[in-house]
Protein 1
Amino acid sequence: VSGGTRRGALRPGGAGVAAAAGAALFLSGAGCLGPATEAGTAPPGSTGSLPARPLGLDLYLPVPESNPLTPEKAALGERLFFDPKLSRDGTVACTSCHLPGHALSDTLAVSRGVDGRVGVRNAPTLMNRGWARSLFWDGRAASLEEQALHPIRSPREMDLPLETLGPRLRENPDYVHAFRAAFPDEEDPVGPEGVARALASYVRTLQAGDAPFDRFRAGQRDASPDDARRGARLFFGRAGCAVCHAGPTFSDGRFHNTGISWGSADLGRYRVTGADEDRGRFRTPPLRELTRTAPYMHDGSVRTLEEVVDLYDRGGTPNPFLSHRLRPLDLTEQEKADLVAFLRALSADPPLSRVGERSP
Amino acid sequence: VIRTLYAPGDPQRYVQPVTWTRDGDRLLVLHSAEDRTWQIGFMNADDGTLQILRSLDWRGPQGMDLSPDGQWIAYSLPREEAPSILDVFLLATDGSEEHLLAGSDASEEVVGWLPDGGPLFYLSDAGGTTRLLAQELDGARKDGPPRVVRSDMVHAGSMGAFRDGFLFGIAVEARQTRLGTVDLSEARLDVPLTAVVPARMERAVAPEWSADGEQLVYVVNPPQGGLSFPVRLAVRSVRTGAERRFAIPFGYVNNIALSPDGTELLVQGYGPEGQNGIFRTPLDGEGVEPVERNGIDADRTRIPYWSADGRSAYYARWSMEDGDDERIVRRDLETGELEELYRTSRLRGFAVSPDESEIAVTRHHPDAPEQSQLLAVDLATGTERELARVTDPEGFSNGSNLTWSPDGEHILYVQSGPDSDGGEVLRVVSRRGGEPKVIPTDQWVSRPRLHPDGGRLAVMAGVNRWEVWTLENVGSVVEDR
């Protein structure tokens, strides 16, 4: 058997993650498309209950066998995520650019790192990244474990040499204890690999669903207003949005050239593959929580959803490598407004005020 | 008593039941989502609640079963980079894990488990023949190598298991592409129709001749029918009979048209991302481009043809606001400009004349609801000439069931209903009018296509006939070995 992935039974219980880590996603709804809000069923022999899923997401979450998902690891990952100690000068944490209240995205067009250094791309939402086929706008990381250390060592972001990570964390006995709890079978887990696995585990627990559109498709016919329903028909039909924005997270995980920032030095996927056809291609962003993740696109150059729809109505920005999937749509103003209404209906309501926590 | 479990009110969403759970509480289903991606899930048998375990993309699983202990779902999925190859996966029914069980370079399709458990059975085409293999499992892990149960299986659709074996549906005859030779002036077949491929193996549909007459192109479907991603395309040399095969990334194809230079197709069907519409694709499927995507029950396109210069596409186009009317349009494939050529209510089918000055149209008669007409329409003036009339509102077969002779002098069409003895009969009529003539065939026909020599005929003909076979003592065979 090869290629296996596990979601990983949570031990000693999924609800414990929320209590320990403050990430309430395991309490946040159903793992089904139907109106019922039932949790997953524990398999025979499992010692703990499995986490429920927000409405609209798969029950199956890919987890590498080498890094089973446990409450202890997710809790450690969350702690690391919010700790500026992971940056060179102790001023920048992961959450500095992935803001709670904004579905863990940035409100700046491009993010800022240590010493105010300006990045080159917009910090995307981290919600539902557990289902991602690859990470970063150019897909250069194949797994969350691989992705996690990039921002820490990036000179534009946290700029921390990885060899200093372990010694710095070991200075805090609480961290040593937390790493041992998270990796009980490992002799010295405090280091870059442990950090990567813990952060990846935490990010896997960041799940957004239960949007008005999810409730509508589950049979609650009044969950989505008329304009959003008309927008859905355009989105899945004539406008062709679902050609790329498909699946439960509304992303095919592939790379497309829409012409955004064409002419800049950032050639996207081409930097990874060197293939001409990848010039200007960037990963299809997921669309959940859009109302909280502005500005949009890989360079944060589009400020509103109305501008996003206008861009696609024009058929993208012409360039020699523009995706053949794009062409002018000739939408009416009403149709554009309907599409925006549909995009808004993909955000959880009531909103997630912090990671997985619902507003009062 | 019939209870409705699932009625999503969205034409893009539907479920395919696969099997019941042993306790009868749930159904294992395949769900087609709004974006036409596939999902594996369970449906509650009481209230229709759908629980999605696993979302896939536009590649649908082919072959799926639930283990007798209810712990695992086995399914086969086309490989992303080589969709002609199926791999076998095991997905835990609680969604907790998934494993690749069989992922060789051969195509491996799940048949299922026997009711009392034991190994998972699947078909494998490794080694050039189709073999039935039995794989013992320890949880999701292989317990030893798979054992060969039979090595001389034919392509067959699994219809489920019984106590000690499996049911298979085997196609023994099919409505598919057949070749013959026709004399239009005498309205007779000079060479009777013969199938281009054996029905037991596969079904050749939607034949098209190349403009130079050197090639015949058709879609090859699995004998059991149904969805098959990717669609397989065959290009056959008319002189040698040699065939080239291509996989084009479509989930389903209703219609194809071969470009005048023989390098591209217009395809009406479900495109590479699940969108329905008309697409333009090279024969090898690399670089599919939409000509027009359909909306969800709001717009529909069908019956594509190329212009003789290869720069435009003709097709029929319906929009919700048009009511019963349907338009025949020409789209410039370079500029995207759309031109309406003809508009009529309740169109059945159409074909463009070789010089593109006229179209032949079949439709319900607008003023006589019990009748239908075959017309020739002058595209420059809009003048209509009735060439045939049938006392049946659906007397002309729907879709791409008429064609012009290469010299533009005759129209070959399929007529059905009471005037055709209840079947689908091939007829020919002069473009100048006169009495239509029946071309006798010993089989019902559809989609006639004439070779540029005006004599050779490719046509869909025959009936679909199936046999159900049992493969018995499977469990005993495995135990004996």
Protein 2
Amino acid sequence: MLATEFRATPSAMSRRLTVPAHWLPRALREHAFALVAVVLLMVAGIAAPALFKPDNLANMALQFVPLGIVVVGQMLVILVRGLDLSVSSVMATSAVMATAFSGRDRDLFWIVPLAVGMGATVGLINGWLVTKRKVSPFLATLATMIVLQGARNAWTQGAPSGNVPPLLRTLGAGMTAGLPNNAVVLLLIAAFTFVLLHRSAFGRRIYLVGGSPEAARLVGIAVDRVTIVAYALSGMFATLAGLLLSGYVSVVDNWVGKNFELDSIVAAVIGGIALSGGKGGVAGALLGAVILVVLSNAVVIVGLPIHFQLVMKGFIIVLAAALYVAKSKGTR
Amino acid sequence: MNATTWNTQVPDGRAPARPQRVAGWLKGHERVATVIALLLLLLAVGAFVSDRFSGLTNLQNVYEQSVGLALVSLGQSAVILSGGIDLSVGSQISLLSVLTSGLIDGNAARVGPVVCAILCLGTLIGAANGLLTVWLRVHPLIVTLGTGAALQGLTLLYSSDAAGSVPATFEYFAYGRILGLPAGATATLIVFLLVAFFLRGTRPGRYLYAVGGDPNAATLLGLPTRRVLVSVYAFSGLCAATTALYVVSRFGVGQPYTGANYTLASITPVVIGGTMLAGGKGGVMGTLLGVYLMSLLNNLLNFMDISSHYQLVIQGVIVVIAVATFTGRRSHRA
């Protein structure tokens, strides 16, 4: 159902053959919504010049990094025709884990492997449910999200306490020479994913599995394994984002990373990651995240109530998805 | 059913035919039978945990408190039967419940108009979901994820805390009795029976199954696929509105996050009750049994003094087990 509704794009390959050398127009078409959003950003910048002041830019950069990390993972899952709603719960759980020890830097030796292991486990469970048990991705990840949320609340008795290790705070909230420290983590993850997708055989398999699972199976690709790895990576990336975010907020509650599942999907859709799978890349995903962060920030700067952000995101995801569906129908 | 007519050579006829009739019924209703077996198992376990659990008073409480979940799951069943999903029901319930108590604001004279307005608004919101999926050709998952976020945002814009109040008479929906039976729960049961009849026995009801089974084939056959889809989402919105009214009736006030857990909770009974997530197969009576099962389970967990956090864990695990067990054989993804 999901597949048939979203489908209907000629492969990127055949389009490249029909429109040779016109990379700019193609890029324009590929990122139609991103362009609309850039125009929106300019309007916002004119309406509220404070948006692009250095202070606010730095602030937005700090907020952008955790979202960027999550979006890259979400993109991998969407590329294999999935959806990961559990990222926000994974983030909150890893943030709670960050405060579970004595709050000194040496605890990170325990915190990071434990948290990443937790994220990977959740991802593996998601992937296993989706591939081996044929559970629809949204339901599998919604259920793991709820289970994790309940487990976290039960463990913390609803009120987490404890301190975030200082190193995590420096990494998550500090700036060096006008650049956010947490960007290092994002750069590493983005570079890793870029190489994985575009310079490795595994990356080709991800695109093939997303483009056509049947074809992928017929040429001998272990479709299930590729899919499971995508979910596991998404879980691990969400963990790292959660740890950074715990350093950013420094006072951890049970809801660190709230709404990140929605935000990451919205950003991915803005960034041209096709929900039908097999189309999109790291650059698009990050661009989508930038646009979403700036737009959300603009809501506050312009003086609208903060809850308007949620309304805006809801509209954006439906509109963006509609634009891409219409576009792919039109170019057929 | 044929089995009974074949047995005419037996003089009395009835006694030997009976097991066969049960076996025949079981063949088509394995899932319903499973749920009934699970219900009985829960009752047995419950009797072991506490002697008050299986008492009539407690069972009546469970019946009474299942209304909210039953109504929202009824709408969800219809949507899932049509091959879609409605992830916005939780936000709809939050918005509509806050609006209900906020607009009534303790004024008994406003109850009638506000209730009508809320029911209309719920239907409209649902219809908007349906129109968006049909017009924009975006998968309902994404549409309702988006509208769900937008509605939650609107709820918080309207009020970020409990809003208003309702007069005491408003409690009737949740706590009223007719002939000693809980009024709301009994009305809900009747509504389920009516919807079950509508789905099985009327033309539009059969359309729903056709559209859910294969929308392209349904369109080729000349069925009003789009109209069916829009009506289904509108119905889900109406159901969410009645759930919102129930929630306000039960707790006396609407809260901006009151519906949050209903999204997953409304899908659980549908899946347990044997409706296929791919659409086109299943029915609402299975859902109702699923609702009773989940309500009884929550009640039992309360008796066992298990915190609500673990109840959430258990609920999630049950969904996973239910879906993983029952959809494992499906060949293509949803």
